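Kindly review this protein for my students:
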Amino acid sequence: MGGDEDPYVIGARLLDGDDSELLRMARDIALSHHEKWDGTGYPYGLAGEEIPEAARIAALADVFDALTSERPYKPAWTVEASLELIRARSGTHFDPALVDALIEQLPAVLAIRERFSDSHPV
């Protein structure tokens, strides 16, 4: 993917023009959450710290959530299998420091996931 017709570019454009730090962060995430640490992502092929930190965090969280959640097209993976794949892609798909942080903070991540799951009343 590339160019101005990408849905990510269009979505980011919808968030342009506001001084809100939150909306600027949302724009970065919309535009860059499919970039990969090694530069093979899209829409611009950004690499490493060229990718906004919020987008790197969102990409990792999105993949972890997608893997560990049941979807109509797949069963949920175990946390262990999900972390195995994430570790294998550390330094290529994901920021290695963020992978380390996810693993270090895993109990807190799992507690948050449980608190906000569809089956758990908030």
